[in-house]
Amino acid sequence: VADRIRAADVLGKSDEGMLEALVIGAHEAGESLSKVAKHLDDSGIVPSVGNLRERLMSQVEELKAGSGTNVALADSVEREIAPLFDRLAVKQMDDLGQEVVVGYRTPSFTELKDFKTSLGRAKKTQMRANSLSADEVNRLYGNVAETLNDAANDAGPGVARLWKQSNEAYTDFAGLKDALENQIARKAKNRFISPSDYGTSIGAGLTTA
């Protein structure tokens, strides 16, 4: 992490300067990850994900079997899952001339990556709002991230290495960017924190990560 941060020229700047550098780093790392995913898709490599829908929906079913609060959480999780499987649905006309879902195709690396990104945004939004569903969305995000990493590993050592490098870079920059945004927000609410102390603590965290 420290090497990436130094290479991105993050340290030694104001809060806003560090944040700008981290935003740029996260964007560039995200672009790199997208290119790796597209390369895998263009090469005809299909992610080995098994029955992804069944695995993700098991979280929903587990929640629905619980109390009223858990049922509400199940609806929230299901709403996050629905857009992906709406796109993956294989449909045909039944005897009554109505379109019905007969199965789901395997998602591409790009589709899985985009789904993971959308879950990451939802997770961040709900955590900042202290939403009751934040933990469940975080759990869903972790499941999808693990599935995606496993699929890259199954595609072969070369693919796994490229994916890991790009994914780690994006995770590092995005994580540090979010952490700095949170600290800047807290700083705005707590003016008694010394700007010099604040900058020092962030810098120390970046250099020792």
In terms of topology, how is this protein built?
Elements: H1 2-7, H2 15-42, H3 52-64, H4 68-88, E1 89-93, E2 99-104, H5 109-128, H6 134-154, H7 157-189, H8 195-208
Antiparallel strand pairs: 1-2
Helix pairs in contact: 2-7, 3-4, 5-6, 6-7, 7-8
**Amount of beta strand:** 5-15%
Order of helices and strands: HHHHEEHHHH
Mean pLDDT level: 83
Spatial strand order of the main sheet: 1-2
The main sheet comes to: 2 strands, antiparallel
Question: Alpha-carbon distance between the termini?
Answer: 6 Å
Number of helices: 8
Structural class: mainly alpha
Strand count = 2
Please compute the radius of gyration using only Cα atoms.
20 Å
What low-confidence regions span 5 or more consecutive residues with pLDDT below 50?
none
Q: Looking at the structure, what is the overall shape?
A: globular
Fraction of residues in helices?
over 70%
